[in-house]
UniProtKB/TrEMBL annotation:
<dbReference type="GO" id="GO:0005829">
    <property type="term" value="C:cytosol"/>
</dbReference>
<dbReference type="GO" id="GO:0016491">
    <property type="term" value="F:oxidoreductase activity"/>
</dbReference>
<protein>
    <submittedName>
        <fullName>Uncharacterized protein</fullName>
    </submittedName>
</protein>
<keyword id="KW-0732">Signal</keyword>
<comment type="similarity">
    <text>Belongs to the short-chain dehydrogenases/reductases (SDR) family.</text>
</comment>
<feature type="signal peptide">
    <location>
        <begin position="1"/>
        <end position="26"/>
    </location>
</feature>
<dbReference type="Pfam" id="PF00106">
    <property type="entry name" value="adh_short"/>
</dbReference>
<dbReference type="InterPro" id="IPR002347">
    <property type="entry name" value="SDR_fam"/>
</dbReference>
<keyword id="KW-0560">Oxidoreductase</keyword>
<dbReference type="InterPro" id="IPR036291">
    <property type="entry name" value="NAD(P)-bd_dom_sf"/>
</dbReference>
Length: 110
């Protein structure tokens, strides 16, 4: 249901934003799946547009041709705090390629 999805998004965003203190200087690498629509898209945009710039978001999706909505909503955060990556979570090769493309292969939050 829409209410369930919205509630889940709000809960995840609230937990991430409150778990990392405002004084934290280190940028956290966050990998978000399913970013072509729905909760994945909303969460990736929210974290990338964080005013304190605490998150470097790797927004992933299976089909990069569906990335227009994400690009539009990310606005100026695109390429600064948000990078779009190809990832099919059902493919080990795709997972390996995606993780290897992340600086130092470091993912702090999945």
């Amino acid at each position: 249901s829409t209410w369930g999805a919205s509630s889940t998004y709000l809960l995840v965003a609230a937990c991430l934003l409150s778990s990392i203190g405002k004084a934290t200087m280190a940028v956290r690498n966050v990998l978000v799946t399913g970013c072509s629509s729905g909760i994945g898209l909303a969460l990736a945009v929210r974290l990338a547009r964080d005013e304190l710039k605490r998150f470097r978001v790797f927004a992933t999706m299976r089909n990069l041709e569906k990335s227009e909505a994400l690009k539009e909503q990310a606005g100026p955060a695109l390429d600064k705090m948000l990078e779009i990556k190809d990832l099919d979570v059902t493919s080990e090769d795709s997972i390996r390629r995606c993780v290897n493309s992340i600086p130092q292969r470091r993912v702090d939050v999945l």
